[in-house]
Amino acid sequence: MTETAGEKAAFRKVALVLSLAHAAAIVCLGALTVLTLPPFSFLILAPATYGGLFFILRGLRPFRAAVTGWTFGLGYFAGGIFWIAESFFVDADRFGLLAIPAVAGLNALLAFFPALASFAFALLARSRLSEGLASPLLFATCWTAAEWLRGHVLTGFPWNLSSYALVEYEPLRQPAAWIGSYGLGFLFVFLVVLPTHLIASRNSRRPWGLVLALGFAASLWGAGQTRLWLGIEEPTNITVRIVQGNVPQQDKWRPELREETVSRYIDLSSQGDVPDIVLWPETAYPGFLDEVEADRQRIMRALPQSSILMTGVPDRVASGANTLYFNTVQAYDTKGRSLGGYAKHKLVPFGEYVPFREWLPFERLTKSLGDFTPGPGPRTLALPGIPFVGIAICYEIIFPGHVVDDAIRPDWIFNATNDAWFGTSIGPEQHMAAARMRAVEEGLPVLRAANTGISAVIDARGRVLASLGLEQTGVLDLLLPPALPRTLYARFGDWTLLPLVLACWFLFVGLRVIPSLTMRFFSHLERRLT
Q1: Are residues 348 and 276 in the same domain?
Q2: Is residue 220 domain-shared with residue 250, that is, in the same domain?
Q3: Is residue 514 part of a domain?
Q4: Is the domain of 166 the same as that of 280?
Q5: Are residue 441 and residue 334 in the same domain, yes or no?
Q6: Are 201 and 264 part of one and the same domain?
Q7: Are 446 and 273 in contact (CB under 8 A)?
Q8: In this structure, are strands 446-450 and 412-417 parallel, antiparallel, or unpaired?
Q9: Could you tell me which residue ranges the CN hydrolase domain spans (predicted)?
Q10: Do 427 and 83 meet the contact criterion of CB atoms below 8 Å apart?
Q11: Which residue out of 344, 352, 396, 429 is catalytically annotated?
Q12: Among 171, 265, 406, 455, which residue's CB has the most CB atoms within a 10 Å radius?
């Protein structure tokens, strides 16, 4: 009995509806994964979200797996970085209409990294190498490789790494001191997809796999807890004041409000006891402070004696017929003399410069005289009377292994930032989570001054000792937390990831394969000899 044209059309419609429903479900699965990350940190969802993607990818052909991974990534990034759209409405007349297409385009591009991970997993899973526990290990390896690439390709954008799901869990974030955020993400993804693999697997003769994995997870927790227990360091005798001026982004550069902005920071900085260091956020001063002698003298006269001011300010330098602009942190003594500075080297595309400006007819989101020029890289400042300090401006703090000068290790990190662009969205919370992971990785306290929040003092184990929330005006006065000895990750960076992955493959796969291969070798040798 042949099908009529109407029946075929109906079947196509049903197939289309089912395909769209399937795609929508995968998008939702990706979006739900965002709930495992700060500020939500619902860790219980991780086995369902990552495990769900793992289950769906099993048995798919590489191209179809890539489409599935891209769809998952679309939900993951749409749910995780939708707040970027808020920055377009700071100057809504110029950029408001671009908010949705620009953020949607960014989501679509970033989704290619989960697509790449899914493609590689499906391609390699077709071999016998992926049998048993090798299957979740392979998925975790491909996912981590894609995350690492996302953090390095072009300018890199390592935002919302999978390991950040563990930021709020003190013992579980500590292994980042040894293996970094990428290594911790590898272990995390492996462990959360393992239950799905064990449930879906038809081979129940390997209970040791579950026992070994649970023991591995317990060891991870125990190692982190031990790091928390060992060594209770006394704080230094250096007093620090972090100033959160809470100036709305749309008011920050208005000439008629400039005096109000400067006065607010001066008033907040000069109250109470005398600190050794006063920290202002990124571009706290609305102008070129090194060019305005009167303002420098006014600010330093108002600050307590013996204080060093470290503030975010724009800077410009004549270079032949051109002028170069920099986003900097500059330090001044009580007489208004410059003690040194640092220029941001990881610039925000389309926020601080336009990539490929010769071909792209786009404007920057920020009004200014010209694009910023990147600085030479991480730098340690030696300022009189205080411990060595490393600087990370704004989103530089999101890059694992790229926030500290390898030649001269600092004793603490100053993260000057301006999250006012993103209002009270989840963006500043996610930014804060990245800063906490950098503290653990480097074994260094991170002091964070943010214009509208979140300002915080973070110790070398990632604990928040004090903070000012979003859209609060005030100061934080605290003793500078101590640095810990240089961590394994601080010494070797992302090179710790490779031996970790190889060791896990040997532990979970090699110990199973090697005896079998050995027996085959001796059986073959025996047959040859006889």
Answers
A1: yes
A2: no
A3: no
A4: no
A5: yes
A6: no
A7: no
A8: parallel
A9: 243-482
A10: yes
A11: 344
A12: 455
- The answer as to whether 490 is a domain residue is no
Express each pLDDT in 424-470 by its tens digit.
Answer: 899 999 999 999 999 999 999 999 999 998 999 999 999 999 999 99
Within this chain, do residues 129 and 67 fall inside the same structural domain, yes or no?
yes
Q: Is residue 412 part of a domain?
A: yes
**Which pair of tokens denotes residue 64?**
């179809």
Residue pair 175/497 in contact by the 8 Å Cβ criterion: no
* Residue 286 and residue 420 share a domain: yes
Which of 282, 352, 396, 441 is flagged as catalytic?
282
Tally of structural domains, the chain: 2
**What pTM did the predictor assign?**
0.91
Active-site residue flag, 252: no
Residues 241, 275 contacting (CB under 8 angstroms)? yes
Catalytic, out of 142, 252, 394, 442: 394
Beta strands in 367-514 (DSSP E): 380-381, 389-393, 412-417, 446-450, 455-458, 464-468, 474-479
Q: Which domain holds residue 365?
A: 237-485
CATH number at residue 264: 3.60.110.10
Q: Could you identify the residue written with the tokens 């086995």? A: 47
Q: How is the beta sheet containing 455-458 ordered, strand by strand?
A: 380-381, 389-393, 412-417, 446-450, 455-458, 464-468
Describe the crossing of helices 46-57 and 62-81 by its angle, rounded to 10 degrees: 160
Say which amino acid occupies 500.
L
